[in-house]
């Protein structure tokens, strides 16, 4: 059974009282620490004092209610959200602005469509988030299933080492707003502790887990497994809070592709991350001042701004923008002009292509495939039919079957808004 933070309640109490940070004199850790210290700057060593780690504060998450867990979550930056401060996570809702709104307890205003849906759901006693919540629950359940699989895989891969399940929420004693949850800790035969993190990923996204590396002997590049930056931030925060020097991220693409990737403590990167997160918390969250530099995917940032600004209202008068926005407008106008030229060229090429295909379509007729050759070169052609998209008359569904409509139709807060710019004549 899983707790609200994703830990496994069934293992509660196994790793609850282990001081992982104290195991720094073991043979393996001595080697790892020596290498990390050799690569670290004097500034990072002075800032972190890594050889004298302090015991982190802890509380067992398996004993928390959902409301208690939510309250604790708002009061800190968890290790999985560390990348949000930097805007490095690619998923929606993970910009530094999203994180600011979450940690300051701000809730976006409901849209008219959401209000309408809520009214229908209230009338028929239906959970308005049911379709989405079911999907979210499946991902949650799959994560637990995959976690068990990866646990077994690690036992197979590293026999003789002990995998420890720890359901504590840990926090930095110097910076209690930095917290961490651990998937696993692994105790080596010599008494060393290594942090283990589990992730699942689609096989289609394998490229995001590779990086090119130059072979100094051949001068050629080859690919090796690498941890995406937003996951690396999570490992860095766990290492900082726990005082551990080595992490292994185990990613499962499918049954035959479970890859362990090791990340050793980088004190300079850790110092940088801690300082940035501290600035975000002290100078933005606590002061309730939004970050002046917005970080994240521009589309995700735009979605966040729209969501918290409120739904667009056609009845509002034209807003007069300050003069400093003029350069941005001119830049957008220039880009739009270039895009228009490109689209015009694409349309011309598509028309030429369609015209060239006409005799081929006629010659292929009802066949799925064709082949043409002159003896020197040959081409195979595929001309298979594709099914059209099914359409639903949502308005008729709402009027005739409101209970079904309320249960299965969900509304986006505001799917998108388009910006068009037209230069005006003055004078």
Account of the 3D structure:
The protein is built from 13 helices and twelve strands. By secondary structure, it is α+β, with helices and mostly antiparallel strands. The chain has two domains: 9-307, Alpha-Beta Complex (Lambda Exonuclease, Chain A), CATH 3.90.320.10; 326-408, no CATH class. A five-stranded mixed β-sheet has the order 2-5-6-9-10, with helices on both faces. Helix 2 packs across helix 9. It is globular.
Short description:
By secondary structure, the protein is α+β, with helices and mostly antiparallel strands.
Q: What is the topology?
A:
Layout: H1 27-39, H2 42-48, E1 57-60, H3 66-74, H4 82-86, H5 96-103, H6 112-124, H7 130-157, E2 162-164, E3 168-171, E4 179-181, E5 184-187, E6 193-200, E7 210-214, E8 221-225, H8 229-242, E9 246-254, E10 257-264, H9 267-285, H10 298-309, H11 326-364, E11 369-373, E12 378-382, H12 394-400, H13 402-408
Parallel strand pairs: 6-9
Antiparallel strand pairs: 1-3, 2-5, 3-4, 5-6, 7-8, 9-10, 11-12
Helix pairs in contact: 2-9, 6-13, 8-9, 12-13
């Amino acid at each position: 059974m899983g707790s609200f933070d994703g830990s496994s309640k069934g293992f509660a109490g196994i790793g609850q009282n282990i001081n992982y940070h104290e195991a720094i004199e073991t043979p393996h850790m001595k080697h790892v620490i020596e290498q990390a210290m050799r690569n670290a700057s004097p500034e990072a060593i002075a800032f972190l004092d890594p050889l004298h780690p302090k015991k982190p504060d802890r509380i067992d998450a398996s004993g928390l209610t959902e409301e208690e867990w939510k309250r604790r979550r708002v009061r800190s930056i968890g290790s999985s959200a560390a990348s949000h401060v930097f805007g490095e996570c690619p998923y929606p809702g993970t910009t530094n602005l999203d994180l600011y709104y979450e940690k300051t307890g701000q809730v976006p205003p409901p849209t008219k469509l959401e209000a309408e849906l809520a009214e229908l759901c209230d009338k028929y006693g239906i959970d308005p988030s049911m379709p989405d919540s079911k999907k979210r629950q499946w991902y949650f359940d799959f994560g637990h299933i995959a976690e068990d699989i990866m646990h077994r895989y690690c036992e197979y891969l590293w026999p003789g080492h002990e995998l420890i399940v720890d359901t504590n929420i840990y926090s930095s004693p110097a910076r209690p707003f930095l917290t961490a949850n651990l998937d696993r800790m692994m105790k080596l035969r010599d008494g060393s502790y290594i942090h283990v993190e589990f992730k699942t990923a689609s096989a289609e996204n394998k490229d995001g887990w590779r990086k090119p590396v130059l072979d100094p002997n051949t001068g050629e590049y080859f690919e090796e497994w690498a941890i995406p930056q937003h996951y690396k931030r999570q490992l860095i925060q766990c290492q900082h809070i726990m005082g551990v020097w080595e992490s292994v991220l185990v990613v499962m693409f499918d049954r035959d592709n479970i890859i362990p990737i090791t990340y050793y403590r980088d004190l300079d990167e850790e110092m940088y991350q801690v300082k940035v997160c501290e600035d975000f918390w002290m100078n933005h969250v606590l002061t309730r001042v939004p970050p002046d530099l917005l970080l994240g995917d521009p589309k995700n940032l735009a979605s966040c701004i729209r969501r918290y600004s409120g739904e667009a209202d056609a009845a509002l008068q034209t807003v007069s923008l300050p003069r400093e926005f003029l350069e941005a407008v001119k830049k957008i106008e220039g880009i739009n002009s270039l895009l228009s030229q490109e689209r015009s060229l694409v349309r011309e090429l598509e028309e030429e292509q369609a015209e060239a295909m006409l005799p081929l379509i006629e010659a292929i007729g009802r066949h799925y495939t064709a082949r043409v050759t002159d003896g020197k070169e040959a081409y195979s052609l595929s001309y298979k039919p594709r099914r059209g998209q099914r359409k639903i008359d949502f308005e008729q569904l709402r009027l005739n079957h409101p209970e079904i409509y309320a249960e299965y139709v969900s509304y986006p807060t505001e799917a998108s808004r388009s910006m068009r710019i037209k230069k005006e004549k003055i004078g």
